């Protein structure tokens, strides 16, 4: 294929589709549903390979092949013969031609194991779960983009795959693309190098769902951001559903252009938090179901212990359970009881429950008390309840951890030391003057085992 043709495949096919459409050979609905969703994979001399998503598209193309060939021949100004390939066939073909970047995009990265069915819903993730479900049911209608933010290990990636699996099962004609932000950057960089960027862009623009994971990673790459921004706008303008995850609130994303951030905030942003006890317990039970063929039994008290001690993130919960089963294989107990569990976690420092008072535990307790996310209390927001929660967290850090003001400032969204000092002084006054504040502080302190 000449370089000129290679670089202009998408424009050649677009002109051909325009000719086909304008000829009124197909009714508009037939054209839109079955013909338009296609692309050219390559043209070699007088032979072109056209790619379509489903068998039914292939059938319709093949029934009308002479007409389609004629239109492509008009654009190319020479006689062209076409073969029609399914996307899945192209994938295998691409695997053999490893320089074809589009295979990276076309590849289905959605993991079967993460579904809505096996996602446990509790207070900590209710909103993000409901919003993800609505996007899967009614794409592009309510929340676009949906932006899910929260710490690592709390189920963001799980929800993205759950949307993907839902769509694949219930709307097989819809195209859904899951992509990790760093893979997007690699893809853009490589496809610019080998000049297939236009194909990549065309492909991304043609999807119905773009599920993009860990967007904060996009921060390090200027050029890719520009490309992402344009693709993103096209998708949103065409009411295609975009779902984004990040470990921080959109307004806190650093190194990402402000115009992009303001677009992210134009849909719905929902936080996802550490699971509270009941959710953590239910997750553990669910994970146990998946291990039914293992012979050793686990005492209920052990689940309660793990749910209390390891709930800062779900990955840790799973890790703790894995550790128990692993040790059970080694030591072969009759039953995994509380004593066994305590011994196991005592041995392994990386899996030891968080007993010590830390800034993270303080933030978590304050957030639970006020029903906020950690990102909210670290943010610049001046909303009354967020400010109060932040001041209380700062007060507890200072009083019980004896931390320098500058270090507390660093922990709370990079504030300077005089701001933190002022917050602390204000809270000291408020506690003296108002019962609501003193009682909130003592409840949180008692939850942290401080009183
Ligand atoms: P994140 O993307 O937020 O870092 P993941 O989605 O990768 O987190 O979740 C980490 C692990 O925890 C995964 O194995 C996931 O299945 C599990 N997990 C998280 N939340 C839930 C939940 N609510 N129900 C069941 N499993 C969960
Ligand atoms: Mg993730």
Rounded Rg: 27 Å
Total count of helical runs of at least 4 residues: 23
Proportion in helices: 55-70%
What is the global morphology?
Answer: elongated
Structural class: alpha/beta
What is the total tally of β strands? 10
Order of neighbouring strands in the sheet with most strands: 5-6-7-4-8
Low-confidence stretches: 98-104
Bound molecules: adenosine-5'-diphosphate, magnesium ion
Q: Can you walk through the features of this model?
A:
A five-stranded parallel sheet has the order 5-6-7-4-8, with helices on both faces. It has a three-stranded mixed sheet with strand order 1-2-3. Strands 9-10 form a two-stranded parallel ribbon. The protein has helices at 3-7, 9-22, 28-35, 55-63, 65-76, 87-96, 102-106, 126-137, 156-170, 181-193, 197-205, 222-237, 258-264, 277-289, 300-309, 314-331, 338-347, 359-370, 374-378, 384-401, 405-411, 417-433, 435-447; strands at 39-44, 47-52, 81-86, 146-149, 176-180, 209-213, 241-246, 268-271, 297-298, 335-336. The longest helix is centred in the last third of the chain and has 18 residues, at 314-331. The chain is built from 23 helices and ten strands. By secondary structure, it is of the alpha/beta class. The chain binds adenosine-5'-diphosphate (ADP) and magnesium ion. Magnesium ion is lined by residues 156-157, 213-214. Adenosine-5'-diphosphate binds next to helix 9, helix 14 and helix 16.
